[in-house]
């Protein structure tokens, strides 16, 4: 029975080593800083306030310029801007697609 225990321990150790090596070899993309995410939004008058209202379902303040700033953000910025609202990015992008169509 001792050889069976050795085989099981060897198997467990092999799995742990494989997982540890795999994790180290994967490159992770850098997360943008909150300042870099909010800078384009802050540059548009009324856009930060409009995004704050979006958290409560009010999309009226999202105009063409604000939508342009939002559409230029990398996807990694949305969890920073809406940390507790994972679906907000979808609704904002959807609203902004309609806004850009309205102003074309």
Automatic annotation (TrEMBL):
<dbReference type="Pfam" id="PF05617">
    <property type="entry name" value="Prolamin_like"/>
</dbReference>
<keyword id="KW-0732">Signal</keyword>
<dbReference type="GO" id="GO:2000008">
    <property type="term" value="P:regulation of protein localization to cell surface"/>
</dbReference>
<feature type="domain" description="Prolamin-like">
    <location>
        <begin position="37"/>
        <end position="90"/>
    </location>
</feature>
<dbReference type="GO" id="GO:0009567">
    <property type="term" value="P:double fertilization forming a zygote and endosperm"/>
</dbReference>
<dbReference type="GO" id="GO:0080155">
    <property type="term" value="P:regulation of double fertilization forming a zygote and endosperm"/>
</dbReference>
<protein>
    <recommendedName>
        <fullName>Prolamin-like domain-containing protein</fullName>
    </recommendedName>
</protein>
<dbReference type="GO" id="GO:0005576">
    <property type="term" value="C:extracellular region"/>
</dbReference>
<dbReference type="InterPro" id="IPR008502">
    <property type="entry name" value="Prolamin-like"/>
</dbReference>
<feature type="signal peptide">
    <location>
        <begin position="1"/>
        <end position="27"/>
    </location>
</feature>
<dbReference type="GO" id="GO:0031982">
    <property type="term" value="C:vesicle"/>
</dbReference>
């Amino acid at each position: 029975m001792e050889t069976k225990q050795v085989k099981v321990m060897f198997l467990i150790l092999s799995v742990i080593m494989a997982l540890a090596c795999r994790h180290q070899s994967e490159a992770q993309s850098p997360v943008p800083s909150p300042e870099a995410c909010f800078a384009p939004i802050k540059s548009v008058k009324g856009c930060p306030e409009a995004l704050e209202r979006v958290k409560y379902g009010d999309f009226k303040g999202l105009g063409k310029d604000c939508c342009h700033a939002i559409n230029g953000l990398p996807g990694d910025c949305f969890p920073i801007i809406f940390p507790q609202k994972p679906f907000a990015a979808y609704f904002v992008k959807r609203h902004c697609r309609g806004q850009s169509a309205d102003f074309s």
